[in-house]
Design a protein that fits this description.
Blueprint lengths: L8 E2 L3 H6 L4 H18 L3 E4 L3 E4 L2 E4 L5 E4 L2 E5 L4 E4 L4 H11 L3 E2 L4 E3 L7 H18 L2
Antiparallel strand pairs: 1-2, 2-3, 3-6, 4-5, 6-7, 7-9, 8-9
Helix pairs in contact: 2-4, 3-4
């Protein structure tokens, strides 16, 4: 039996999902992110799994043979923080980080509490960089 990726593109409504975000301020930030990511990437937003709003897609294949599809970039309004899926080289991240604002970085994403904490112009540059990086991973 093959491995089934948890996060797949679905036909679920992005707007319906955003409307389930309980915190009104986070819901407002989510709509702002939706517009910012859509404008910056030129891709239509799609739901990936139950809670990730993704833009574009690429096919990946690991040395282990595991392969699948993933969004080029995206975000998720989690309960605690907003997760931004912005894969890029460390040196690119290091260029953006000082001017980005208040955030923490995990392995594959960047966490922010609210949009007011970050610089939207820097975020646009990071989104663009993440899309270019992810497209290079496409196979």
């Amino acid at each position: 039996m093959g491995y089934e990726p948890k996060t797949k593109e679905t036909d679920n409504s992005v707007i319906e999902f955003i409307e389930t975000v309980e915190n009104p301020k986070k819901r407002e930030d989510t709509y702002r992110l939706l517009n910012l990511f859509t404008e910056t990437t030129g891709y239509e937003a799609k739901m990936w799994g139950p809670s990730i709003i993704g833009f574009g897609s690429y096919h990946y294949k690991y040395a282990s043979g595991h392969e699948g599809d993933a969004p080029l970039t995206g975000f998720s309004p989690r309960k605690a923080k907003i997760s931004l899926y912005l894969m890029m080289e460390d040196e690119d991240y290091e260029k953006f980080a000082p001017d980005f604002g208040k955030h923490t970085r995990g392995k594959a994403c960047i966490y922010v509490n609210k949009l007011a904490d970050i610089n939207a112009e820097v975020l646009k540059n990071m989104i663009h960089t993440a899309v270019v990086f992810s497209k290079k991973q496409d196979c």
